[in-house]
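Troubleshooting: if your tokenizer reports a length mismatch, compare against these two reference records.
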Amino acid sequence: MRYIVGLVLCWLVPFWGKSQIRMEVIQHAPFKTGNHRLFLASDFNNWQPGDLKYEFKRQEDGTYFLNLPDTLRHFKYKITQGSWGLAEGDAHGNSRPDRTYEQSAEANPKLIQIKLDGWESHSTYRFVVTEIPPNTPKDATLYITGNFNKWDPGDEYHRLSPQVDGTYRVTIVSDLERIEYKFTRGDWDTVEGRENGKTLPNRLLYREEVTNNDNIEVKIISWEDLSGTFRSISVYDLLLLFSAFQSLLLIIAITSMQDYNRPANRWLVVALGFSALIVFIRVVSAYKEVAQNYTKLLLVPDFVLFLYAPLFYFYIQKLLFKTSKLPAKWWGHFVLPGVQLMLYLPYFFMEEKSLQLKIVNREADLVWLFWGMGSIAWIVNVYYWLSCRRVIRSYRVLYTTQSSYEQNLQYLSTVLVLQAVCLALWLFSGVIFCIGYFLGIDTGFIVLKSIDTIWLAFSTIPYFLGYFAIHQPEIFKLPNQPIPFLNPNESPSVVIQDAMTPLIEKEPELLENLNSYKEKIEGFMNKQKPYTNAGLTLNELASKLKMSPHLLSKVINEGYDKNFFDFINEYRIEEFKQRFEDPRNRQYTMLAIAFEVGFNSKTAFNRAFKKMTQQTPREYFFESRVED
């Protein structure tokens, strides 16, 4: 029976063979990769270079064959190694025309024998993964994906081959000048990550910089799914999260203070709340679980670029100059944030997967949007920084000529220093990015670290504000007597006369009676002691002396060679000396007496005392008692 079946099969095989077209690759040039596979790309399969349905089978003698249905009468085709980067060419590496099958013109329509003279000349790169994370599953299959294969994370043609020496190897062929790539274990959930498991920027390879295409060594540090979770929060993330928490505590502390400066601190509270939210989103959105499910959150931190600076600027204006209204055309400060929102809206309405691909591919529209917004924002933030610095300097000049009340600006100076550090790092990041992008240098790691440092420096601002809130809470409170006449846009020499105070005496062209004015002022100061009022202003003293503020200012400047601030503090220091040396005041502390004579803070008292005596209060009184 078996003999009869064998005879029947032998008789039928020739007829079966005649119902098919057999293609044989009887000779081929050396393969460019270690993946010795051949595919048919034709017009009947939409020219797919790696179609598994049309993969040639390798025979023991090293030849390859593929059977096609004989219903195909005419088609064009080429042989590939799985991609168009590895298509057949001539012996010199040039592209060759498409092959054509014409059934009626073929000498043997049922058998096509092919010789491959060579392969199209393309850049070939052989990657050697020398190290993988220790927690990599033993049965894991590794892949390389990038812009050379449309970011397919599980492309079988780009699967890494394990070697006996423990390394993994894979070869890619691409003529791209700039190759971006990553390693995965088959899908985007198992993509490689940074040291802390968070998202790793695309690896970059520039064709001109590669000196050894056959041995590009790479180390895979971690996998996002095995380490990039909320269970492994880094110290860096904790510092940023604590900063956001510190901002919330500071908001509660400031608003809970008695007599807190509500008009000014309202802007500070808004700025702190906004920065806390942005920092929190920045940290959370960097984790894989959030980034994949809520990709649009990655865009939210960018809104700090244009919003934080005007909020802080309004706070300084309100704090120092007690402006009752918003600046003229205040809405102009929020035009750029509005423009940014309009430019970002299309991406917020985009499907999550599409946005993810744009970010992964670093598509040109996103790159130019981020780069353009960042460049404009840097210029804007530098402008606001200079404006804040100018306002503070104007205030320092104005209060010495018109006020005896010293507002502690040390914390504002500290904030400006931190902002300057952020701006300097920001500029450095932009320059390094441009160098890498336009000169084809991989600077992604440096830019990433620089941006992380910017956020870290920015997050330290609430820590310093919290320190000052604890040690010097008076800076967040209302002053004893507000100074409403200061204006940052005015020259320091300009003094606005109180509309309710009549001008009893007109200023003469020349101060011919300087000595008589000095006697009048000194008599009033010694008798009435107006300097004990911590909020004494030039206008107030001039009103009591029946003099114009400008005349009083000029008498103090020319008659005593002092500004108003130092003139009043000199009286306060002398009054302090007398009271401290009085035995009846032994039960009072230095600070208590300093407040009694008109100083509004310990810092102001110590600074004024040392300026007048070249010694601290304790040094002065200790040495005087030793001499006695």
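Reference record two:
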Amino acid sequence: MMKNKLIALFLFVAVAVNAAQIKDMSLDCGAKGCALTFKFASDKDLPSFYQKYDAKSHKLSLGFSATSFALGEGIFEIDAASNFVKSMKVYKEPYRGAEFLKIDLMVGSAIATDKNAIALNKSDFMLKLASKGGKSWTLSKLFAERNKAAEKAAEKAALEEKKRAAEDKKAAEKAALENKKQAALDKKAAEKAALEEKKRAAEEKKAAEKAALEQRKREAAEKKEAEKRALEEKKAAEKAAKEEEKRIAEEQKNLDKAILEGGKISALLPNLKEMTVLVGSGMEQFRLVATTPIELQNVIGPDKASTITVGLAGPQKSPVFKIGAGSLVKHVTWGANGLKIQLQPNAKPVIVVQEGALILQAAEKTIKKDGFLFWSAHPDGIFVRDWMKASEEKPNFETFVNKFDKDSKKIVSGAQTFHLRPIVRELIVVADEIELFAAPNDNAQVLKRLTFGDRLVSLDVKGIYCKVQHGTHIGFVNKRAVSYMDELSAVQTERLKQVDKERGEVVADGAEVAGSQLDGLYDDRVTYSSFGRRDPFVEIKGLVEEGINIDQVELVGIIWESDVPMAILVESKNPSISYTLKEGDKILNGKVLKITQTDVLFLIQEFGVSRRYSMGLPDKFGGQK
């Protein structure tokens, strides 16, 4: 007993200068009992040792410090039916500051404790077990026999594989011969098909030549018929023109007679109730009201000749009434297709229909000081008001006409009242390319494709879509792809200027953007773009409302492909803290107004003043895009 204690003490305190090695392992059973023997390569530099038993998993774990296993690390299956060792796992693991060779033994009922006695016989280290009747084995011999059986099985499999390969080769040679025969048959069939195709092509060529000849004859006949029809139409047009000229002369004669006799003269075209012109304070507006309510879908143009056609019922022809005031509308007349409004050269108004009235509005540059020039006409006379003068004028109709255009027969206008309302800016396409859909759905018919910088008239908002007008087309676009002018980032503004320049549509610096839609609910507030910088006139101290302080965060990413775009921000001083925001989310003293593919626009309200703050993604050099 004393000897065993000395051996255990020696194993625990021994410090190996060089790593020990276990050459082999065995289970030896006799009349006195069984022992697990670990055969070391040398009786020098023996390692420290410990053992531990886990009753729940039936596992006895052994550890040897600074030791290697000659048979290698891994899992060794011994005997699954044994009451002693069923299998073992050998691996390295650090323990109490040193690297240990771990041997986990999956054991049966014969081993149920880690209080097993140990003994040392020269270089053999033994773990004595209390149970008897075990089957002895040596690990190297056990696996040598298994390896031999495996080699024998492998040789048998190789022989069978060789035999199968020979059979496969024979079958392949047979298949190749059959393929060769089939290829010869296919070649013969292809040659026959080519001959038939050549014959068919010749017949088709002959038929095509015959059809072309007939087509030329038909086109010649159609051309002759068209020339004849054009000549007849020309004669009819000349006749109609002479009749119209005669009718207008007769009407003018009657008009002159009525003026001479002092009769009442109407200032309106047929079927029109009102025409009004307002000019001043950077804005010009032309308003027209017909007896039949005007709908936006019946308004076409402006076309290449700067003519807007309103599809309303009226006389086929009428006199041309010139508009002398303003630089927006040149003249108005009825035509075969409806009411025609001829714009002044280079006039590009926004077209809006409100309460059945047609309104044209554009930026005005001729009057450089504050004030309005306003005139309206009704059947009984003309009303003129110049807010830049102290007194009002109420000229009669003839005096008013002669003042603006001596060659005009009439000046057309008619309105009881005029209401000035604020406007919402026009929308700008900020994506490289988008589609204008016929309905608020990505699967709807595509009316046309729009590119960066295209201007749109905002009509309505339906969910994630904006209802807009572009030229003569009315449709829907995703509102994530458009922005108002004052929502553009610095980069987008510069790019828009370049696009306008390339298109020949350069807007003078400082010019106001034309309105796109009348809207009495537009907020009356002071706004400006900060282009990514903090407002230097607002102190940070005292802002204690809850929310993210955008002066202390940086924009690092934008999630754009999802249905709801989101911006990813991190704190400037601690990038490990991040935030994810979407449009409408509240921040310190404001909210997220707009998220585009490259920028985030915030609306900040401080001390009763609203401002916009834009934050762009950094480029690859760390600067702002």
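Descriptive notes for reference record two:
- Residues 273-404 form one domain.
- The chain has a mean pLDDT of 78.
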